[in-house]
Amino acid sequence: MKNNFLEIDSNNNSLKENIEIGQGIMGLEFGMSRKDVKKKLGKPDEIEIFPPEEEDDGKSEVWHYDDLELSVSFDEIEEWTLTTLAVSSPNYLFEGIHLIGLSLEETMQQMELLDVGEFVLMDVNQDDDDEEEVDSQVATLFHAGVNLWFENGITSEIQWGSIWEEEEDIPKKKKKKKKQEEPKYPSSADFDYF
Q1: pLDDT of 133-176, one tens digit each?
Q2: Strand-pair category, 146-151 with 136-141
Q3: For residue 87, what is the enclosing H or E element?
Q4: Which of 34, 84, 90, 164 is spaced 20 to 30 A from 20 at the CA atom?
Q5: All domains of the chain, ordered by start, with CATH?
Q6: 86: Cβ–Cβ under 8 A, 6 or more apart, which residues?
């Protein structure tokens, strides 16, 4: 039985949804249009529109799905396609590891075991709606487009996007194993001549 894409087992326990670096979840793929995301997830509970941070950035639009504890972001500069996903429920695993609810130290130990690279940790203290200051930090893995958010030393959100090619403005797709093909012999077009 399915409940808003998070599966429920026979004991009415939520099964975990696994996040892989650079990949979407629940049938979502980076680069999807808003229309296609709406077909997959339905109407969002809330839509927020953010002005550009830099003059050339364009606006961003974030859709929140409260029951899924999922937010999806679209950017004007990317022709309003899906660029970022964020989750805050313990029903999501990151590369097979449960992170939401772990302490900052435990989360960083898990990231070290995954050997995904070095995170940069920054303080981003902000006022909560109740005007109570929340001790917030974000650990960023720049080359993989991953942010891990912490509130008062506890992992509260996983945010990630597509992995982009360095020299091109297109998302890098996860490579699938191909069947072995006949060898391609080079032609004169394959060489640069001086």
Answers
A1: 778 999 999 888 999 999 999 999 999 998 865 544 444 444 33
A2: antiparallel
A3: strand 81-87
A4: 34
A5: 2-164 (2.60.460)
A6: 70, 71, 72, 73, 157, 158, 159, 160
Alpha helix ranges (H) inside the chain: 34-41, 104-114
- In this prediction the pTM is 0.75
- Take residue 77 and report the two structure tokens written for it: 């500069």
31 token code pair: 């680069």
Tokens of 128: 């909560």
Whole-angstrom Cα distance, residue 178 to residue 92?
A: 30
Residue 137 · residue 123 · CB < 8 Å: yes
Residue 40 — left, alpha, or beta (φ > 0 → left; ψ -120 to 50 → alpha)? alpha
